[in-house]
Amino acid sequence: MLSRVAENVYWMARYLERAEDTARLLSVNSHLLLDLPRATKLGWSEIIAITGNDELFDEFYPTRDEASVLSFMCGDRRYPGSILSSLAAARENLRTTRDVIPREIWEEVNQLYLSVKEQVGSGITPRRRDAFLGRVIRSCQTVNGLIEGTLSYTPVRSFLIVGRQLERADMTTRIIDVRSANLLPRSAEDLKPFETLQWMSVLKSLTGYQMYRQHVRLRIRGPDVLSFLLQDQLFPRSVACCMDRLAEALQGLPRHELALKEVETCRQDLSKPDVTLLAAEPDQLHAFVDEIQIDFDDLHAAISQTYFAQQELNQSQSQSAS
C-alpha cells in the first residue's frame, strides 16, 4: 500500500471524527446553557479552550459570545478544526483515494460537505442550529456504518480505524481537561448546585450518559465519570477502549512494533493513577491529561515515521531535483 494512500486514509478518518465530535460538543453545550441559570460562569469560552486555539480565535473575534464561537467552530475556513474545514479536508483526502474506498462512502462525505457548505453560506441561525449539528452527527455516523459494512478488512480499513480512534481519544481527553477545571470542587464547600447537571453534559457530549448509568449504576459523580471516560474498556469513546481498538488495528499492519510500543506506554500511563484521587486535585488531573496528550503526540509521530515518512522523503527528493 502506498504511503500517500495510507496517510490520506488516516487523515480522512481523523478529520471526519473531528467534525462529528465538534458537532456533538456544540450541541450539548447549547442545551446545557439552557438548563443553567444565567449567573453561572460556564459559557462558550470553554469550547474554544477545548480546541487549544485561543490565540487564533482572539485574532479574528473580539468577544467569545455565542455567535462568534459558533461561527468559528462551524464554518470559519481560517480555523482548520471547524466543521466545514474538517469536512473539506476529509473530502479532499477521500477524493484522492477513491479507488480504494467504496463509492457509497465518497458520496455520503461529498454530500455532507456540500450541504454544510451551503448552510454555512446562508447562515446558521439559532433556530436551524440543532438541525444543522444533528445532520453532521448522523451523516458521520452513516459513514462509519458504511465503513463497517462495505469496506474489506485490508490495510485501508486498518488506517481508517487507527485515525478515528486516535482522534476520538484526543477529543475525550480535551473535554475532560477543560471541563474538569470548572466542575471539580477545590474544597467540600465549593460544590456547585449544578455540578451533576454539568457532569451529565460531559457524558452526553461523548454520548456516554446511558452507558455510564448501565455500567456504573451510581449517581453521577465527578470521580466516577472520570474513571469511566478514561479507563473503562467497554465504552467505545473512553480513552482506554480507543487504545484497545487502535492496537488491534495496528496489529493488522506490518512494521507495527514502534507504534504498538507507544500504545502500550499510553495504556500504562492510563492505568497508573487512582482517578478518584486525581479528581480531588484538579491541578494533578490537568498534569495527568497533559501526559496522556504527549503520549498521543508520540503515537502519531510513530505512525507517521513508520508508514508516511517515505512519502515525505519522495516529496523532498522531488523538490531537490526541481
UniProtKB/TrEMBL annotation:
Residues 1-308 form the DUF403 domain. It comes from the Bacteria. Pfam families: Alpha-E. InterPro entries: ATP-dep_Glu-Cys_Ligase-2, DUF403. This is DUF403 domain-containing protein. It comes from Halopseudomonas oceani.
